[in-house]
């Protein structure tokens, strides 16, 4: 098996690279196309996202698990891979009918049918890309290199050819290419890697439908509790409050990408270990993953809270200063989100505990609804941030309870207090140095270096550095 650390590093580069790529290209697109054109693309994409959720039907996560489980059975793995591709294509064909009906029935879509159809082509590229196959085989080097090459090509064409709102259709095509252009190469590579050592006869794509539907239910429940606060905030407090909240969320996306990159690498590895009956190795991977989230998530979340104001001023501008309050609240949520992702990838999906995960997400949705309705009228975007924190805490607690009950292990072990101590020392060091840090840029250079040095020194002194393993 490939090194789990190597896989994580490759996936982290790919994930964070995607975020950085967006931060570089979007300001240019927004400036040359204008808010109306960008808004139209985002509106169409939001519709297509919901259609995509149905056309995928849980195949991306289910596919990773099944391909990893069958790594030692080439013939059966090839059969499953081809069946899942056929199932996804059939669902995409049904989605194409829905797209056609929307083009006829919705006036906003009829206003620019070519753009909507171009953006809708992402459904077909998502189907033929078989991204789940390459994650299941842990081919992360290919995924990362391919993704970086496509993003560079996208940026070159964008800066060279998109210069005004009249280039909107080209921008729509480039948007699809930047996300899914590599999937054309995936299909060619898939044909070679999924070749069966024996003829495939009697394919049954729909035999996977029940298992895929269970994963789909978990995905829908997760989407509900994650997006509920934005919807309620928009209805109660308006677009400005949503802008503040989303500004903070975009900042959180970068460190969160470093943590959740572990999810993509864990799912195939844990699924393979369980399929080949290696419980000791599985528990070792699970234990190290929990320690990794504590070790990296605690200082990241605390750092966001401590540096919220200068971060917002640098990346969003003074007009977004109220987002700093949101960022201070969302900092601790970073650790909880990472735990939910890791528990999903290492426990609930590999062990087929989708019903328990769905119940946890629905519990988070109930808490989110209650806290949002209680706090948003008086606290606006900060109330939505508290609701996010409460919802993530609820989901993480329910999942941790299930893990303790079924696997007799938890998310806290003997090393956790040392990570908490190191974070407290880091916080004290940052607070002591902050009055002398100067301007915004100086703060964002000096204070993170100070905090990292204090955190690392504390872990080194306690001999609890997690990466030593």
List keywords for this structure.
single chain, globular
Brief rundown of the structure:
The chain has 18 helices and no strands.
Topology:
Blueprint: H1 4-56, H2 59-69, H3 74-105, H4 107-110, H5 113-129, H6 131-136, H7 140-161, H8 168-180, H9 183-193, H10 209-237, H11 239-275, H12 279-306, H13 308-315, H14 323-348, H15 354-379, H16 381-407, H17 416-433, H18 440-462
Number of helices, counting only DSSP H or I runs of 4 residues or more: 18
Q: Taking all residues together, what is the mean pLDDT?
A: 86
Shape: globular
User: Beta-strand percentage?
Assistant: under 5%
Provide the structure class.
mainly alpha
């Amino acid at each position: 098996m490939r090194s789990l650390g190597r896989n994580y590093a490759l996936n982290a580069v790919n994930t964070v690279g995607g975020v950085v790529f967006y931060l570089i290209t979007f300001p240019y697109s927004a400036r040359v196309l204008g808010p109306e054109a960008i808004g139209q693309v985002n509106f169409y994409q939001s519709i297509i996202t919901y259609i995509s959720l149905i056309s995928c039907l849980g195949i991306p996560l289910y596919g990773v698990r099944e391909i990893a489980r069958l790594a030692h059975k080439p013939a059966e793995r090839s059969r499953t891979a081809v069946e899942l591709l056929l199932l996804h294509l059939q669902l995409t064909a049904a989605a194409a009918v829905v797209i056609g009906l929307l083009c006829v029935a919705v006036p906003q879509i009829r206003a620019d049918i070519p753009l909507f159809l171009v953006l809708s082509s992402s459904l077909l590229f998502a189907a033929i890309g078989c991204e789940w196959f390459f994650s299941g085989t842990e081919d992360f080097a290919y995924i990362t290199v391919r993704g970086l090459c496509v993003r560079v090509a996208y940026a070159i064409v964008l800066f060279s050819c998109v210069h005004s709102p009249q280039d909107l259709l080209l921008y729509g095509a480039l948007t699809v290419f930047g996300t899914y252009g590599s999937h054309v190469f995936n299909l060619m590579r898939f044909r070679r890697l999924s070749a069966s050592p024996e003829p495939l006869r009697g394919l049954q794509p729909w035999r996977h439908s029940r298992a895929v539907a269970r994963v789909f239910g978990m995905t829908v429940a997760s989407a509900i509790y994650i997006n509920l606060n934005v919807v309620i905030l928009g209805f109660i407090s308006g677009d400005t409050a949503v802008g503040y909240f989303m500004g903070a969320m975009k900042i959180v996306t970068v460190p969160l990408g470093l943590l959740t990159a572990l999810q993509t690498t864990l799912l195939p590895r844990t699924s393979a270990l369980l399929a080949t009956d290696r419980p000791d190795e599985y528990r070792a991977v699970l234990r190290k993953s929990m320690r990794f989230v504590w070790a990296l998530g605690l200082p990241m979340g605390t750092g966001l809270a401590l540096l919220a104001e200068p971060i917002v001023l640098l990346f969003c501008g003074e007009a977004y200063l109220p987002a700093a309050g949101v960022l201070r609240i969302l900092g601790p949520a970073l650790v909880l989100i990472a735990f939910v992702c890791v528990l999903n990838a290492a426990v609930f999906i590999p062990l087929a505990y989708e019903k328990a995960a769905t119940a946890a997400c629905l519990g988070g949705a109930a808490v989110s609804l209650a806290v949002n309705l209680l706090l948003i009228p008086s606290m606006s975007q900060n109330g939505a941030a508290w609701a996010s924190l409460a919802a993530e805490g609820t989901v993480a607690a329910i999942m941790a309870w299930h893990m303790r009950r079924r696997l007799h292990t938890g998310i806290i072990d003997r090393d956790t207090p040392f990570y908490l101590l190191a974070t407290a020392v880091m916080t004290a060091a940052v607070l002591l140095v902050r009055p002398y840090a100067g301007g915004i840029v100086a703060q964002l250079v000096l204070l993170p270096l100070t905090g990292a040095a204090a955190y690392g020194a504390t872990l080194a002194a306690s001999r609890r550095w997690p990466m030593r393993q």
